[in-house]
Fold this protein.
Amino acid sequence: MSRVLIIAQHGDGSLNPATAKTLFGAKGLRVDDIDVAVFAEDAGEVAAQAAKLDGVTRVIKLEHPDFAHPTAARLAPEIAALAGNYSHVLGPSTTFGRDLMPRAAALIGVGQVSDVQEVLDSHTFKRPIYAGNAIVTVKAPADRPVIATIRAASFSAAGEGESACEIISREPTAEDPGHTRFIDLETGGGEGPDLQTADRVVSGGRAVGSSEGFETIYSFAKKLGAAVGASRAAVDAGYVPNELQVGQTGKIIAPELYFAIGISGAIQHLTGIKDAGTIVAINKDAEAPIFEIADYGLVGDLFEILPELEKLI
Amino acid sequence: MPRQVGAWRRPLRERGAFAGAGPFFMQDWLQWDVFETQEPNTMKILVPIKRVVDYNVRVKVKSDGSGVETEGVKMSINPFDEIALEEALRIKEAGNAEEVVVCSIGGKDCQQQLRTGLAMGADRALHVTTDEAVQPLAAARILLELIEKEGPEIVFLGKQAIDDDNSQTGQMLAALWERPQATFASKVELADGKATITREVDAGLERLEVDLPAVLTSDLRLNEPRFVKLPDIMKAKRKQLDEIALDELDVDAGAQLEVTAYEPPPTRSGGRILESARELVDELKNKGLL
Ligand SMILES: Cc1cc2nc3c(=O)[nH]c(=O)nc-3n(C[C@H](O)[C@H](O)[C@H](O)COP(=O)(O)OP(=O)(O)OC[C@H]3O[C@@H](n4cnc5c(N)ncnc54)[C@H](O)[C@@H]3O)c2cc1C
């Protein structure tokens, strides 16, 4: 009995693209049944979106006022209760999935396979360790449910199928433990495409020098229709909000085209862009490590090169 | 050696696991009854730290694929754990905690990192000794045993260890302990037995309020850890470091997952340095990227 349960991630009434990528990863398990669980206060819209995805057998709605801003402590027991019916429970390797899935795994009493980048067979996976400096093959025991998070950057998104699958409702079974309360969420309100799923990304580093300096990056990105990212140094210096960080401890992304501007190319940053299609680096230091992995490099001052590029595009 | 026993608590589950653990534990059991009548008015923070390859080292896979090269490589406290420890020390220095205890699970060598933790300012250290690799669920089970013994109000871990990059132990521990978790913390505020945690999430910054006791995990921007000074290193040598053999704990610490192969990542070879912005635009157009 091989059945997969995917925990949907969503926000503001729409399904997060990481869910469709998790689904794509799940298809590699070669199982017949893939269910998607949507926990929400009102799951209607998101469930309908999930039902359209190609390869989903059924969408399970679990609705409760607590799920307006669910915490891992609230959701993990719900997932553990559902897990008995499945051979695999998967979540995206986003901060949502990374917070939630290990808590569920511990309740089920199994280890978790984090950040799956390749599915070899139903119980064998490849995942990165040491900031991507090594790839390990891990085997999960065949007699226990497999709990895993799927690295979105390694999989394409599942498309829409011909017809929507069935949507069923289930009653939540756990109770709010009452010890963890959501207060608020502050988002940078960034315009432009979503960094995690954009086809083109322009990232700025420490060399950009200030928030005003980042206007140059934003302007160039806008012209390209690209999302804006940043190195940790640029985030730490307060030039841009934290959610723009790309790298080992930020977002792992795989755009078709990536610009690293005034970024030296520290290993922790490179981890975040290894799967990018084409990497372009602009740096005034010809010896910068970023050039060792960039497909195209321009040596020079970013404040001279960027405006010029912008004009040519 | 002076012992700090004021904040000790009766374990959640009584069992004989510690009774046979030698004089150190016997003493605690004997003293328990005396101290359980005193309401603990102080807070203890437990900070698990992991010995890992230093983040500056470019890790290489061994040529036979049996693991990564760790021979003669610089080892350090996992940077996220160091940040967690720094935060715990700041909480103590602000008068909001009485004791900071560092602990580690592993071979003899991880006492180096525990000593570094003591030099940073931790009051004492616990070393759960084992030569086997410990996976996150096992680590969480072991830490739960330490919690039952120590009764901390906060267990502060790093959000991930930079060797396995799993990002699981804190969350698993919170599940087993049935307590709140606030992961990826970039700000911690304590008041009235509660913690308000700002978390770095994909969408931005989320704030959670959790009742203590709780598990917290640190993100990079929480603080910048202090440098240890030479006199502190000397002082740390005299601080208390207790060993507990893993076998003496009643824990299933077996591996859950089997690692069958290590391989280097596919390398990206560097491309070309171009002469001008014009040339770049032409190249990208040729590849259909613009
Ligand atoms: C545990 C850990 C996790 C980390 N996680 C991440 C992570 O997720 N993401 C991340 O990015 N980093 C991460 N880091 C930090 C990482 O090690 C580097 O410190 C960081 O990436 C450096 O950022 P940078 O390249 O912008 O700055 P720098 O290294 O200072 O590089 C600036 C570059 O700009 C160039 N430059 C200067 N002026 C100009 C100019 N006018 N025009 C063009 N070029 C110019 C310089 O030649 C230099 O190469 C992590 C570190 C640790 C320890």
Notes: Chain A touches chain B through 86 residues (CB under 8 Å). The radius of gyration of chain A is 21 Å. Helices of chain A lie at 17-27, 44-52, 72-83, 95-108, 211-224, 232-236, 267-270, 302-312. The first helix of chain A runs from residue 17 to 27.
